[in-house]
Amino acid sequence: GTSTLAQTLCDEGWSDVTALDFSEVAVKRGLEMEPSVNWMVGDARRLDENFEGAAFGAVVDKGTVDALISGDAAAATEACAAAGRVLKRGGRFVVVSHRRPDGDDAWLEAVLAGLAEVDAAWRVDAHASAGPAVYVFTKRRSACRDVELVVHEYG
Questions:
Q1: Phi and psi at residue 97, in whole multiples of 5°?
Q2: What is the pTM of this model?
Q3: Cα separations (Å) of 71 from 15, 51, 62, 149?
Q4: How far apart are CA 92 and CA 106, in angstroms?
Q5: Exposed, middle or buried: residue 53 (CB in 10 Å: 0-12, 13-18, 19+)?
Q6: How remote is the C-alpha of 74 from its chain's centroid?
Q7: CA 22, CA 24: separation in Å to the nearest integer?
Q8: How does pLDDT run along the chain (155 residues), one tens digit per residue?
């Protein structure tokens, strides 16, 4: 989209960054900001229509899950399932959210419902501070749909 996240990842040394947005206008703007990024118009709920399974070591969401869940929890669940399907084993789904790990159980339930559709166990590390929370969902072994939740609180 129009944030500088993709550009920051490139600046920090990430060499293969793909950015997806629903808006053609946002993708055109992103391409102007950082042409080395693979910019794509697409739907986060349908990632696996654009990418092979196990295509990514990391999927980073900065606000999409929050936006989707505020209108339709099912849409957020779909997006999380799609993210889980395109992750490699050991890959991480990183979600930056204004939803606190100690506050909105419905938010976490919607995310976990999506990830439960993927044949994997998940470790969830929730990092909370005064600003947005960062959730790191690590895709672990298959054939076991356990979830381990670890909450890290910072001053």
A1: -140, 150
A2: 0.87
A3: 34, 26, 17, 26
A4: 21
A5: exposed
A6: 16
A7: 7
A8: 678 888 898 889 988 899 999 999 999 999 998 898 999 999 999 998 888 888 899 999 998 999 998 888 899 999 999 999 999 999 999 999 988 777 667 888 889 899 988 888 888 888 888 888 899 999 987 655 556 666 666 65
Q: In degrees rounded to 5, what are phi and psi of residue 132?
A: -60, 155
Which residue matches tokens 């739907």? 43
Of the candidates 126, 125, 47, 123, the one whose C-alpha atom is nearest the C-alpha of residue 87 is 47
Determine the Cα–Cα distance for residues 44 and 103; give it in Å rounded to an integer.
25
**Cβ contacts of 24-33, under 8 Å, gap ≥ 24:** 26/1, 26/2, 29/2, 30/1, 30/2, 30/6, 33/4, 33/6, 33/7
Site of tokens 């992750």: 87
Cβ neighbours for 15, distance < 8 A, ≥ 6 positions apart? none
Contacts of 151 (CB under 8 A, 6+ apart): 101, 102, 126, 128
- The tally of CA atoms less than 13 A away on the side-chain side of residue 47 is 28
Nearest residue to 60 via CA among 101, 98, 103, 17: 17
Strand pairing partners for 41?
Answer: 21
